[in-house]
Design brief:
Layout lengths: L1 H16 L3 H10 L13 H10 L6 H8 L13 H10 L1 H14 L2 H10 L4 H9 L5 H10 L6 H12 L6 H15 L8 H10 L1 H9 L14 H15 L4 E5 L9 E6 L4 E7 L8 H14 L7 E7 L9 H4 L3 E5 L2 E10 L1
Helix pairs in contact: 1-11, 2-3, 2-5, 2-11, 3-5, 5-6, 7-11, 9-10, 9-11
């Protein structure tokens, strides 16, 4: 796992040097929140595809006009799978047939990429790889999909076969990153990522007693003075379980407000927002209103599935815990929705 992580880290650094449509596709499916931070050097048609990758609206007629262009030297507008995928994301209804045709013409690696663009294609790929034996790409895809039981030796041989002495393109990078995520999955304790995060947050107050009250002789106690201190402690705890955890990332403005994401577990599509009710605060009312405003900003994270809001209240200022529990549940805006769970600890 260590060697795979180093390979992926090195190769990602190489991919980011190229400001092409392949990079846009990679960022869209793997680290969508990074996409707005990059500039690209694209053709006019690829600029339209980029809009699709950014999940922004574009006139369908522009997409159709690109697809309708006559082939040049045998190459059509959809010959490039990355251009096609971006255009498809802008006009799914109009291009679904072209995407399915492209899928049928693709090898396993490209088929896997297309399932990331259009998840309804996944059952087709599952059926195909089930019938394949001793094929490195099929072994990796089975592992990611959780199909059959792949033994460790077979998996290692497949990884070595695909990474030894060969350039790793965008499609293979995506598959290998998903393999790393699958191997880091905490199934060994029979809990989902949501359950692990929930357990950590619920046990936070008990866990920190050792460092805020009961440290060894001649070692001063830690002071938890604000939400940044809470965030830092949670970062250390969560990072040991989720190695790809990131902290503090700004998301798009809603009105005049910019919200920063406190803790990000991108592979699990989880965000953790941290609040601390301090001694000077009178009650929870202000924090309830803050969270309601923040929820609107989080709709900018199109990949978000689960939002944990952790409220640390060491001075027990909360008058009615149901005020926080009333925030729990699904949040929907347009076609995007995510689940909110507020956890209060004191």
């Amino acid at each position: 796992m260590v060697y795979l992580r180093e390979i992926l880290k090195h190769n990602k650094a190489k991919l980011i040097q190229y400001k092409n449509i392949e990079l846009a596709a990679y960022l869209c499916v793997q680290t969508f929140e990074e996409l707005p931070n990059h500039s690209f050097e694209l053709s006019p048609d690829e600029e339209i595809a980029l809009i699709g990758y950014k999940k922004e609206s574009v006139e369908v007629s522009k997409v159709v006009s690109i697809i309708s262009k006559a082939p040049v030297k045998g190459l059509s507008a959809i010959s490039n799978v990355y251009k096609l995928a971006g255009l498809y994301l802008s006009a799914k209804k109009e291009l679904i047939q072209q995407l399915k045709e492209k899928y049928q013409q693709s090898d396993l690696k490209q088929k896997y990429f297309l399932t990331k663009i259009e998840p309804t294609l996944k059952p087709l790929l599952e059926n195909e790889v089930k019938a394949l034996q001793n094929q490195p790409l099929a072994v990796l895809i089975k592992t990611v999909f959780g199909i059959d039981t792949v033994n460790e030796a077979e998996l290692n041989n497949s990884l070595q076969s695909l990474t030894a002495g060969t350039d790793i393109d965008v499609q293979l990078q995506i598959l290998l990153e998903d393999i790393e995520s699958a191997l880091l999955n905490i199934r060994y304790i029979n809990k989902s990522a949501d359950e692990v995060v929930r357990d950590i947050l619920n046990n936070f107050s008990n866990a920190v007693q050792k460092i805020i009250k009961n440290r060894r002789k001649d070692h001063p106690n830690f002071e938890i003075e604000d939400e940044y201190d809470v965030q830092d402690i949670l970062y250390v705890i969560l990072k040991s379980v989720f190695p790809n955890l990131r902290d503090e990332d700004a998301i798009g403005k809603v009105g005049a407000k910019t919200t920063k994401i406190d803790l990000i577990i991108r592979e699990e599509r989880i965000l953790v927002e941290v609040k601390m009710i301090k001694e000077k605060d009178s009650n929870e009312t202000h924090f309830i209103e803050q969270l309601k405003v923040d929820f609107e900003s989080y709709h900018e994270c199109k990949w978000l599935r689960k939002l944990f809001c952790f409220v640390y209240d060491p001075f027990k200022k909360t008058r009615d815990i149901s005020n926080f529990h009333d925030l729990n549940g699904e949040r929907t805006k347009g076609e995007h929705n995510f689940n909110v769970e507020v956890i209060l600890a004191n």
